[in-house]
Request: fold
Amino acid sequence: MAETPTAQQMLDQEMIARIGRRDQSAFSALYDRLSGPLYSLAMKMLGDPAEAQDALQDVFLQIWSRAGSYDPDQSSVFSWTVLLTRSRVIDRLRARGRRSRVVVASTEDTPTAAADASTVESAADTAEKNDEAARVRYVLTNLPPEQREAIEMAFFEHLSHHEIAARLGQPLGTVKARIRRGLLKLRQRLRTL
Amino acid sequence: MISEEQQDQAALYALGLLAANEDAAFESELTANAELRDLVRELREAAGNLALTAPSLPPPASLKHRIMREIAMKTEERTVVPLRRPAVGWVPWAIAAALAVFCGLLAVDRVRLEHQLADIRAVDPLMQTTFYTLAPSAPAPADAKATVVWQPGRQSGVIRISNLPAAQPGKDYQLWAVDAEHKDPISAGIIRVDQNGVAQVRFKPVEKAEHVKAFAISLEREGGVPKKEGPILLVGTT
Reply:
């Protein structure tokens, strides 16, 4: 059974509904809430500020034009926008054949990532958002390393399970199982933590 | 009960890793399995949260201005374009009425009718909106195109360009209004397309252009030129 939406998710849904009615103030508010994490994601995947900004612009224009077709039964607003962002970023990676320049950074082996997070955090980022990020980071860090690695390669580098298997020199079935187990654990622990 | 294989598929689907054919097959399975749908939604939420683990970097403030401006333009465009319909519908009736008057009542003064039409146009600025479709000419790509919405009363317009690659370094695209009362085309400013070959900008010619026959885009030196020098890439009339 699907989980009940949180207060923040309901607020996001309300904003999307207003954007669907061409409410620019709701759009501005949603931008303020989501642009930080979505830009950070685009930067991590693309490693280029100009490209990340262009991708983010595409995403928000898409949010503006497609807000009316958002389906809360499919995903939360945040997950929907993450999906749109990954999709736009992947288009750019494909178009430019720049996968080699992707910033590969696992949570475990990038102490600079944590430092970046604490030093360049925007003033607009709320404490709540930081708490949520810290919670997800904690859960991810505590997954078995091989599961975390497979999930991060899939999510941030958009490598297929075939490509991950080839890169790690592991059988395809093993990689699929790592992704499945890792994601199920992530879901379970985020629910209970 | 969801099998291990279905869970595998659900995890890959949530991460967008299924191939197109697998994707379609799994989606048809989803329509018939509510439990599997719930699992996919939860896995998608979990995957979406991974975005929060990226090092936090705020986008520049200028980006929001850029996006909000674009949104405002889109909104404006949506309000302008549909309003042409009544204008289009009205014109034939006006012409028909005028012709009927000419045919049926030879004594009617044509000059007076033209004055009346001018009065109506002055009252309704939408009557003055004109659309120009610009087609490519070599060396522009064959699929490059542009549309201009021009309001002579306001001496301003909006141009939307697509499929035109960015100008090479040291060059810029420049928009020109070809006016019947001016010997040379009138500059309407520099236009820069984005990485997708798209631009949508509001423009205003540097001189008054009351009888615009056509709009054209040429490739000029960076920063633009006062008088057209470079090759025409797109040109079009109403």
Q: What stands out?
A: The interface with chain A takes residues 4, 7-8, 10-12, 14-17, 19, 38, 41-60, 63-64, 66-68, 70-72, 74-75, 194-195 of chain B (CB under 8 Å). Chain B has three domains: 4-53, 84-126, 129-236. Residues 4-53 of chain B form one domain. Residues 212 and 235 of chain B are 13 Å apart (CA to CA).
